[in-house]
Amino acid sequence: MCVYSHLEDYINCLYQQLNLYYPEQLDIEYIANRLNIFLEYSTSSSFSFGNVLVLKRSNTQREWQDFGHEICHVLRHAGNHTNLPQPFIDYQEWQADHFARHFCVPTFMLQDIKLPKIFNHSVCYISNLFNVEHDFALKRLEHFYSQKFNNYMIMGRG
């Protein structure tokens, strides 16, 4: 049994609405189109404004991760961010990073995968399967395993 966080529930529902159930279905263009988000590419940096998302041209892994980060701002952060206090901007950036890890490697997909027993092999496997960078996959799996352990302890099995 998996106990989902609010964020995991949100992403699970979002992907179900988009009829996305498997890692190989995760596609920037498809998701942006279905969410009525206009996607553009830049040579300088990734950012979003309104329903326009600009991605810095890079490798496909970095673009997917940046997409996950920026889509958080589009879907979950409203208003003009230029006049916000720096601690609040930092908090929103932290939220977007956290969102991206769950968006790019969704828990409901991750929990159905038989991972290799050696942790570093699992990291490489997730990196390839979800098209994310090694460090990104490492952080995501560390969080996933920590969450599994905490759920295990909460369920009274520890």
Topology record:
Elements: H1 6-17, H2 28-34, E1 38-42, E2 47-49, E3 52-56, H3 60-76, H4 86-104, H5 107-110, H6 119-129, H7 134-154
Parallel strand pairs: 1-3
Antiparallel strand pairs: 2-3
Helix pairs in contact: 3-4, 6-7
Describe this structure in words.
The protein has one domain (6-154). It contains seven helices and three strands; from the N terminus they run ααβββααααα. It has helices spanning 6-17, 28-34, 60-76, 86-104, 107-110, 119-129, 134-154, and strands at residues 38-42, 47-49, 52-56. The protein has a three-stranded mixed β-sheet, covered by helices on one side. It is globular, with a radius of gyration of 16 Å. The mean pLDDT is 91.
What does the radius of gyration come to?
A: 16 Å
Q: Fraction of residues in helices? A: 55-70%
Based on helices, strands and strand pairing, what is the structural class? Answer: mainly alpha
Biggest sheet details: 3 strands, mixed
N-to-C order of helices and strands: HHEEEHHHHH
Number of strands: 3
Enumerate the strands of the largest sheet in spatial order, edge to edge or round the barrel: 1-3-2
The N- and C-terminal alpha carbons lie at a distance of: 15 Å
Work out the helix count. Answer: 7
Number of domains: 1
Residue fraction in strands: 5-15%
Q: Taking all residues together, what is the mean pLDDT?
A: 91
Tell me, briefly, the overall form: globular
Poorly predicted parts: none
